[in-house]
């Protein structure tokens, strides 16, 4: 649909763009990225015919751009620029109708039923049909943007060019606009080429991305490849971190501030632990980076309160998450700042201990009972039943963990727990084989993310060795306490 071949050019004799070549296929949503001054807007203006090409060639639908008249170009390409409040005082319908000019033989002298049909159709598609008799000056920024989008679509273009279309739009309007554009690329095979400042929106919606740097192409590839951490750091000269989107397969970038507000380094230890008959609580003076399977606060996040709540063995699980949230609020905890777990184990039987390594330390807190012990290799012989958590493991790490270390820490802790149940001859009551844990075990790994950097947490790494020792010893201790209480 668009073929740019070795294009150079700009506003003066000294070109801003240098030897730019890329193709955009029909039905693609193609994003153009780059820091200020990299040539994004210059490139868009050259594609739209506003700026001349000094060298190279641009083809649109197989035709040389320079051979097309302004009206011919407008029948193929529509431009949605950053409109401002100084637009003319037309009604919404009049503004949208201007998009049909490219198809007219005179200034609205040949207005047809088809023209009217197209204008009404695009106003419905963009959600502005009910506003068609309003003066455009009376509209909000988001409403205006939709009107100008309708105007561009009224041209019935094959290619739509956009210059930062979400600029100055509220979050809901950004999503609404890009959802609509994405839908049209799929359903109507409209080709959309857009400049983006927001890397996350570009990564979320675009099929491919073009990254410019100093007027040259740095990368032209899929979003996941273009938005590489090292590449974006180098081009934008800023610290960022790449993460996958939580619900769709798209890359997302987060800025890393200098953290001037960060508190002095804190060591999480038993001084922060508080135990009552209702719950075990650890409240950290700073938010800790967490990965957990808690009823509340599961997944990854940042939390400063940690609650292991005792519930009866016949606890009703119909709405355990909602009920847990209510419980936390009633006790003065903010659920969004808390990792909350449940256990039927008597809390007095918990075990905790501090362990020190070379430049880092960990604090382990474990509640453990074996009333619903299960051999994972024979779990198919058990019927599913929701019961309160039994072996709940908390590992607080005074150090900075990598992403892989968080996952490895969970693996290492699980292996140590299994070894503890094996050595204590904990049996699966259904199969009478050695149990590997309980059916409702929960785990938390929480790190201060300050101090010594810990890349790995496998069983033979320095951190892994400490986790193995802590979980094995505390799990054995907690199970033995529980057994002693049960047997009297």
Give an account of the 3D structure.
The mean pLDDT is 89. The chain is elongated and about 100 Å long. By secondary structure, it is an alpha/beta fold. The longest helix is centred in the C-terminal third of the chain and has 26 residues. β4 and β5 form a beta hairpin. The chain has twelve helices and 24 strands. Strands 13, 14, 15, 16, 17, 18, 20 and 23 form an eight-stranded mixed beta sheet that branches. It folds into two domains: 254 residues, Rossmann fold, CATH 3.40.50; 218 residues, 4-Layer Sandwich (L-amino peptidase D-ALA esterase/amidase).
Topology:
Blueprint: E1 2-9, E2 17-24, E3 29-33, H1 40-47, E4 55-60, E5 63-64, H2 70-74, E6 77-80, H3 92-97, H4 113-125, H5 141-154, E7 159-163, H6 171-187, E8 191-195, H7 199-205, E9 208-213, E10 216-221, H8 223-226, H9 229-236, E11 240-244, E12 251-255, E13 273-275, E14 279-292, E15 299-310, H10 320-330, E16 338-343, E17 351-356, E18 361-367, E19 373-374, E20 392-398, E21 400-401, H11 403-423, E22 437-438, E23 442-447, E24 453-454, H12 462-487
Helix pairs in contact: 4-5, 11-12
């Amino acid at each position: 649909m668009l073929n740019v071949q070795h294009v150079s050019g700009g506003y003066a004799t000294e070109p801003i763009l240098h030897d730019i070549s890329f193709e955009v296929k029909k039905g693609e949503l193609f994003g153009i990225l780059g820091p200020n001054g990299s040539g994004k807007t210059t490139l868009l203006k050259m594609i739209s015919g506003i700026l001349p090409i000094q060298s190279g060639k641009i083809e649109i639908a197989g035709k040389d751009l320079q051979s097309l008249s302004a009206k011919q170009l407008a029948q193929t390409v529509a431009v949605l620029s950053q409109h401002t409040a100084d637009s003319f005082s037309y009604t919404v319908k009049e503004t949208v109708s201007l998009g049909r000019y490219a198809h007219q033989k005179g200034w609205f002298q040949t207005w047809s039923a088809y023209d009217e049909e197209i204008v009404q159709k695009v106003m419905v598609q963009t959600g502005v049909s009910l506003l068609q008799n309003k003066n455009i000056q009376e509209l909000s920024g988001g409403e205006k943007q939709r009107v100008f989008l309708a105007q561009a679509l009224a041209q019935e273009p094959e290619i739509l060019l956009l210059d930062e279309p979400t600029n100055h739009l509220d979050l809901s309007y950004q999503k609404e606009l890009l959802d609509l554009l994405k839908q049209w690329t799929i359903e109507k095979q409209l080709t959309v080429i857009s400049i983006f400042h927001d890397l996350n929106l570009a990564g979320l919606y675009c099929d491919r991305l073009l990254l410019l740097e100093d007027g040259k192409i740095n990368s032209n590839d899929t979003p996941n490849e273009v938005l590489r951490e090292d590449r974006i750091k180098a081009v934008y000269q800023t610290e960022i971190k790449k993460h996958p989107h939580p619900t769709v397969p798209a890359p997302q970038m987060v800025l890393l501030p200098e953290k001037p507000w960060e508190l002095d380094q804190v060591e999480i230890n038993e001084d922060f632990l508080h135990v009552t008959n209702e719950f075990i609580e650890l409240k950290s003076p700073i938010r800790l980076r967490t990965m957990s399977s808690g009823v509340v606060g599961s997944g990854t996040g940042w939390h400063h309160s940690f609650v292991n709540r005792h519930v009866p063995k016949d606890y009703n699980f119909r709405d355990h998450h909602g009920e847990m949230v209510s419980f936390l609020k009633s006790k003065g905890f903010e659920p969004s700042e808390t990792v909350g777990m449940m256990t039927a184990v008597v809390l007095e039987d918990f075990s905790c201990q501090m362990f020190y390594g070379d430049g880092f330390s960990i604090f382990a807190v474990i509640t453990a009972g074996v009333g619903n012990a299960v051999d994972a290799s024979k779990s198919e012989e058990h019927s599913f039943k929701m019961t309160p958590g039994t072996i709940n493991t908390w590992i607080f790490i005074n150090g900075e963990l990598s992403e892989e270390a968080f996952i490895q820490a969970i693996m290492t802790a699980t292996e140590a727990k299994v070894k503890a149940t094996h050595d204590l001859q904990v049996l699966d009551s259904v199969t009478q084989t050695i149990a590997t844990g309980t059916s409702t075990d929960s785990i938390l790994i929480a790190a201060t993310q300050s101090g010594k950097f810990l890349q790995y947490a496998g069983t033979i790494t320095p951190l892994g060795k400490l986790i193995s020792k802590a979980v094995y010893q505390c799990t054995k201790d907690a199970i033995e306490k529980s057994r002693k209480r049960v047997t009297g």
